[in-house]
Amino acid sequence: MDDYPRTLMEFERRFASEEACRTYLVQLRWPEGVRCLRCQHATVWPTQRGLYHCARCGFQTSVLAGTIFQDTKRDLRLWFRGMWYVTNQKAGVSALGLQRALGLGCYQTAWTWLQKLRAAMVRPGRDRLAGIVEADEAYLGATKPGKRGRGAAGKALVSVIAQVDGRRIGRVRLRRIPDASARSLERAVQAAVEPGSVVRTDGWVGYNGLGECGYVHDIVREEAAVGQPLLPRVNRVVALFKRWLLGVHQGAVTPAYLDAYLDEFTFRFNRRTSRWRGKLFYPARAAGGPGPFEAARSREPCCRHRVNHKLS
Ligand SMILES: [Zn+2]
User: Fold this and answer.
1) Shortest CA distance to 201 belongs to which of 190, 187, 185, 212?
2) Chain-centre distance of CA 217, in angstroms?
């Protein structure tokens, strides 16, 4: 199902009522028809309250259960507008921007909504990069690079891996790592890159074990490119991330939110050539990525164990 409005006009027309929003969520969540959240039975009756009554076990399923909309007291229409706004800002959004766009009275609400929307739409795909990649690390916020083996005090170290696509950058993976030890770097590469791929790094000793991890390790040496960055793609990605962080988040990063920002940047970067921005929100199932119902899926086993979830 590739079904998402492409323009604001289409969006307003499509999601003009609560019912339209709900219908959309139902189609997204159960493309083959609604199933009982508790017993998975396929025969359910819609109730007047917008729930689905299971013909077998009597459980009442809500399409909102286990999603970011669960327990919300606000209109789905407002949430949908929030999603539209968040996904259509090319660079990203701030809580203040969201507050203004939706006319929310309280900054704290906008901030909470933004965190929820980020968590729902911005997850790094589980599929790994393949082919030829460049791998390096960067200290964020550091004016000078820290010493590699030890880490710089107060700075976050981030593993940056960029796929080589001819002369261009393919997809990227960024994630925080505790240090630049072989153990940390190998883990980061293994999480992001398919075995058998070519991994280009500089001569840092922490990458020496990549061959044994099943990669073709290509060490780019200093003399190979005098006056050029050894790993031009990762250098570019780091520069873009820093600029993006400065523009969208005023450069202020607390460690607690750095992971979310890395995910968001990765998500946006890897979809930068999407034909329509609206597709940003659309679950990347075709690309192997998760969708907005990731939270819902992970909660469903609880229902099968007959835990009495509060349904909205
Ligand atoms: Zn049931």
Assistant:
1) 185
2) 28
Are 121 and 136 within 8 A, CB to CB? no
Q: Please tell me the distance between residue 307's alpha carbon and the centre of ligand 1 in angstroms.
A: 13
Helices (H), the chain: 8-14, 18-29, 76-88, 95-102, 107-121, 182-192, 232-249, 255-270, 294-304
pLDDT of residue 299: 33
Provide the edge-to-edge strand list for the sheet that holds 132-140.
Answer: 168-177, 156-165, 132-140, 198-201, 216-219
For tokens 């001819």, name the residue: 166
In this predicted model, what pLDDT tens digit does every residue of 13-31 receive, in sequence order?
Answer: 999 999 999 988 888 888 8
Residues with CB under 5 A from ligand 1 (ion): 36, 38-39, 41, 54, 56-57, 59
Q: In this model, does residue 47 exceed pLDDT 50?
A: yes
Alpha carbon of 92 to ligand 1 centroid (Å)? 41
- The answer to whether residues 144 and 244 touch, using CB atoms and an 8 Å cutoff, is no
Measured in Å, residue 288 CA sits from the centre of ligand 1 at: 29
Per-residue confidence at 287, pLDDT binned at 50, 70, 90?
very low
Q: How far is the CA of 58 from the centre of ligand 1 (A)?
A: 6
pLDDT band at 290 (very low <50, low <70, confident <90, very high): very low
Name every residue whose Cβ is closer than 8 Å to that of residue 226 and which is 6 or more positions away in sequence.
none
Could you tell me the pLDDT band of residue 65, with boundaries at 50, 70 and 90?
confident
| Confidence grade of residue 110 (pLDDT, cut at 50, 70, 90) | very high
**148-156: long-range contacts (C-beta < 8 A, 24 or more apart)?**
148/180, 148/204, 148/206, 149/179, 149/180, 149/181, 149/206, 150/179, 151/178, 151/179, 151/180, 156/253, 156/255, 156/258
Q: Measure 60 CA to ligand 1 centroid, in angstroms.
A: 8
State residue 154's pLDDT score. 62
